[in-house]
Amino acid sequence: MRKTTPSDTAPSASKRSSTYVAPALEKGFNVIELLAKNPAGLMASEIAAGLGLTMSEIFRIIVVMERRRWLSKGPDDKYRVTPMVLELVFRATPSEELTAVAAPLMRAFAAATDQSCHLVVRNGDTGLIIMRQHNPGATGFYVRIGTSLNLATTCSGHVLLAFQTETAQAEGWSKSLRAQINAVRARGFERMESARTLGVTDISYPVFGFRGEAVAALTVPFLKVIDGTELVGLDEAQAQLGDTAHKISVALGGKMP
Q1: In this structure, how many other beta carbons lie within 10 angstroms of the beta carbon of residue 113?
Q2: Strand order in the sheet with 71-73
Q3: pLDDT of residue 12 exceeding 60
Q4: What is the pLDDT confidence band of residue 1, given thresholds at 50, 70 and 90?
Q5: Which of 57, 95, 128, 204 is deepest in the core (most CB within 10 A)?
Q6: Can you give the pTM of this predicted structure?
Q7: N-to-C CA span, the chain
């Protein structure tokens, strides 16, 4: 008689998704996802309405999440997601090491160029800004931490797509996107006019992990000023950005292609 193994008795992933349920846990996740779409915050009644639940169904969940510091309640009685969520993500993933290594190098870049920069990682089908460094000057341009980016249309997204190891990454790409990504891979960086802001040129370089894939994209939204106070021009800023990305990769033990 053949012995039964754990794989014989364990339900498949599809069965687990329909068999194992934890209603309270799912409600907690739903609260966070709803508040992520409403960063200004929502009152408890608005959260209940937004999730199609009654106050009695959601109130205890909200109270526990507030006690555990996942949510905070403001003087306007609105609940918001706390930075603890981001902190836990950093601690539970390689992002913590990445940001620790990148922080001093990004500060040095910003000081030398008077341009801000930010770090983007891949988050499923989007890019996620996990860190930024302001420039020290009086005028600057920067993006918000936690912003999601379209991989197919952004400078950082092109870099993250270009330097991935998955062979299936190109499935579903249009012919023009495939050509763009191949060009980025060939030259080692992306540089393009901002799709949203006049006077800003985005430049992005890959930060490599030990397997040779891009674990992040280091990006500068280069802001051109017209009063002659620029510390460096666009080309020099690009050269320094590439050098900074290389130093971060080396510090992480990254394998460069």
Answers
A1: 24
A2: 42-43, 78-81, 71-73
A3: no
A4: very low
A5: 204
A6: 0.66
A7: 52
**Residue type (1 letter), 159:** V
66-95: b (≥16 Cβ within 10 Å) or e? eeeebbeeeeeebbebeeeeeeeebeeeeb
Q: What is the pairing mode between strands 78-81 and 71-73?
A: antiparallel
Q: Which runs of E-coded beta strand occur in 35-142?
A: 42-43, 71-73, 78-81, 117-123, 126-133
Euclidean distance between CA atoms 79 and 59, whole angstroms: 12
Q: Which of 96, 21, 85, 28 is nearest to 59 (CA)?
A: 28
Distance CA 154, CA 127 (A): 9
Four-residue CA torsion sign, 208, 210, 211, 216: negative
Q: What is the pLDDT of residues 202-246, one digit of tens each?
A: 999 999 987 788 999 999 999 988 777 788 999 999 999 999 999
Closest CA to 141 of 179, 170, 113: 113
Cβ atoms within 10 Å, residue 46: 16
Predicted confidence at residue 166, as pLDDT, reads 56
**Lookup result for tokens 């409600």:** 27
